[in-house]
Design brief:
By secondary structure, the chain is α/β, with parallel strands linked by helices. The longest helix has 26 residues. Strand 5, helix 4 and strand 6 form a beta-alpha-beta unit. It is built from 10 helices and 12 strands. The strands form 3 sheets. The chain has an 8-stranded mixed sheet with strand order 2-11-9-8-3-5-6-12, with helices on both faces. A two-stranded parallel sheet has the order 1-7.
């Protein structure tokens, strides 16, 4: 289907930073040092746009792109426009976006309606609920799959690159973004964003409720799996034997009936039921319950 993405071509002295990042990554992987003048030829004047190249990854002590996003969002006065195929912010970014929306900043997020990773998509919707409640707006791109990673703050800053608006990009992956401080470029990015909005439909708060339920069910499923592993361990049943038993009884399993792998201990089953009931009544958090089986 249709693929929507955003790319830029960088010229001038900012390319030196791109080259430095590449050679640093090369050294990280191969332990070969290539820092010679041959890889940094003289570059003439190429324009007046100010471009800041920012990289982050597991080889750095600082989550540079994450910090830059947080700083930019906190400084927004008028608008924050975001395009991202995945939206799983940490608490600091989510609070920054919510605070901006609550203070009257125009917060808009364009996100794909067609998911390429269902689990990530479901998790993203759980965060959209907070964004919508604080006054922000979320638009689902319907023309195809939108893979753009763009943020525009007021008419002051825009950034695009490889980083998604998610924890994996900020904390685990090798990523690189360009932060551009040029009104002409920002105007182009904003025009593209508004054009993408025309090919999107606005997400309503009530539409996120089913995803909240799915997340809650997923937590229960995870807890049940943890409990089952502990049960199998106690009953001396291998995962292979349990998997074979599941294949024989998967229809009953899908209907919600109990699947027993050899001798499932009654005590463990009762403990699971007790914990799940406590979670349902908000008497126990999922995290605390999971620790009891860790």
């Amino acid at each position: 289907g249709y693929w929507r993405d955003t790319h830029i071509r960088v010229e001038g002295t900012s390319v030196y930073m791109l080259q430095m990042i590449f050679l640093t990554d090369w050294y990280y992987t191969t332990k070969e040092i290539l820092l010679t003048k041959r890889f940094f030829p003289k570059i003439g004047h190429c324009g007046n746009s100010m471009v800041q190249v920012v990289a982050s990854g597991p080889d750095s002590d600082w989550e540079a792109i994450h910090y830059a996003y947080f700083s930019a969002i906190c400084q927004a006065k008028k608008s924050i426009y975001i395009e991202t195929p995945y939206f799983i912010p940490d608490e600091s970014l989510l609070k920054a976006l919510n605070s901006a929306a609550l203070s009257g900043v125009d917060v808009r997020i364009i996100f794909p309606k067609i998911a390429d990773h269902k689990i990530v998509n479901t998790a993203s919707y759980s965060y959209f609920s907070d964004i919508l409640k604080s006054g922000g707006k979320v638009y689902l791109y319907t023309k195809g799959f939108i893979h753009s990673k763009v943020i525009i703050i007021d008419d002051k800053i825009t950034s695009t690159g490889s980083a998604n608006m998610d924890l994996r990009s900020f904390m685990l992956n090798f990523e690189i973004n360009a932060f551009i401080y040029d009104k002409e470029v920002i105007d182009i990015m904003t025009k593209d964003f508004l054009e993408d909005m025309k090919n999107s439909e606005e997400l309503k708060l009530e539409e996120t409720e089913e995803f909240q339920t799915m997340i809650a069910n997923a937590k229960r499923d995870i807890l049940a799996q943890i409990a089952m592993r502990e049960t199998l361990k106690a009953a001396s049943v291998s995962e292979e034997e349990a998997a074979a038993y599941y294949e024989e009884n998967k229809e009953q399993y899908k209907k919600g009936e109990t699947v027993r792998a050899k001798h499932i201990l009654t005590e463990t089953e009762e403990k699971c039921a007790e914990i799940l009931a406590a979670i349902e009544k908000n008497e126990k958090s999922f995290e605390d319950a999971a620790k009891e089986f860790s």
